[in-house]
Predict the structure.
Amino acid sequence: MRSTPFDELLSTITKPEIKSLTKKEMLFQQGDLATHIYAVKTGTVKLARYTIEGCSVTLHTANTGESFAEAALFSEIYHCNAVAISASTVLCYPKNKVLEILQTNAEKSKDFIALLTHQVRSLRALLELRSIRSAHQRIFQFLLLHADPQNHELKIKGTYKDMAHELGLTHESFYRSIAKLENEGTIQRTSSTIKIKKLTSA
Amino acid sequence: MRSTPFDELLSTITKPEIKSLTKKEMLFQQGDLATHIYAVKTGTVKLARYTIEGCSVTLHTANTGESFAEAALFSEIYHCNAVAISASTVLCYPKNKVLEILQTNAEKSKDFIALLTHQVRSLRALLELRSIRSAHQRIFQFLLLHADPQNHELKIKGTYKDMAHELGLTHESFYRSIAKLENEGTIQRTSSTIKIKKLTSA
DNA sequence: CGAGTCGTTGAACGGAATCAATCGTCGTGG
DNA sequence: CCACGACGATTGATTCCGTTCAACGACTCG
């Protein structure tokens, strides 16, 4: 299921530049000239866009080991903003170098395609999640989707507020629903993990 | 902006199988063994999934000339259902043949990557659209996004109900909002087209 | 120690979903 | 060929629930 890690994929590029980001630091914003694609070495970086009304939308959250902004490979400019959720370090791969590799190395291209198809699927999963109207159910499905299949637990990355935002909910209704899930006995929370106790929910 | 059409991309495959679909006919459903990837020759095919509650979610609408199910290339099974919105014909490319080409032909791989990155971006755009809470604004932005930049018009593919569904709205609220947009003078409708008269909307 | 922000809860509001009914059209079959 | 059924398009009334505004304690960081 898991596609080849990006850094391995691009190991042919010797010494990618490493950039450190403080919490909330912006790596690039929409409209900037797209020069690099990235992978998270440590920390978490989110991709977001702003709607005309000024609300921001989280499009993707890249954790340690994951790449991001690959879609910018064939675009002149970035179409979203990249902001570090926590203090992070990112590996920077110049676009033209990457393109060169893809041009010549069919094997690596295939891996890259696998990575992209994986991304398409997870975007579709997110879209599907957004179609669930009930906050209660949406959160529950999100947890099911992201929990470790073995122990039905998941570690919380970033704040609950971020999670609410990724789910397209206000933090208030998120808190309420998650509290309800806990009261029902459907989930159990500690400060950093959520454990699913029941696999269905009213 | 527009990536290479899929059929051209795969022209190396001689004589892809052509399949005809009647309106509402299902090409494949989630869980089926993924054997082919497709391109629409004529008509329109939509990809949808069903949430646990039984509601369906449109993930993608593929029009004439567009490919679909490319994400199944690296998956054993299909993760969604493909249904023809209108009577359609589709080109069927066997997965293993396509993989073979990608394996050996770096140039075509690059084109395929371009196609996928394009798809990632449009999925993100859809996700952004879904984050707009107001039905009024969501529809308006959708129209802006899909209208011909020259004449600010768009042809309606399928029914209004389908469009509502793609936007994640009930058809009732969709009709109401679109009627309001017309009354405001923001748009003008004929039976098969929508013309945008004003580029902003209250 | 204060500013800022997360986590949390309460109250009220608004707008989309839901239920329901009508009209027109398109196909289908007797 | 027409009657009938199915479904799209449309509008009305009502309900429901997520948003919004508001307030507060806890914690972190400078």
Observations:
- The CA atoms of residues 135 and 169 of chain A lie 7 Å apart.
- The mean pLDDT of chain A is 87.
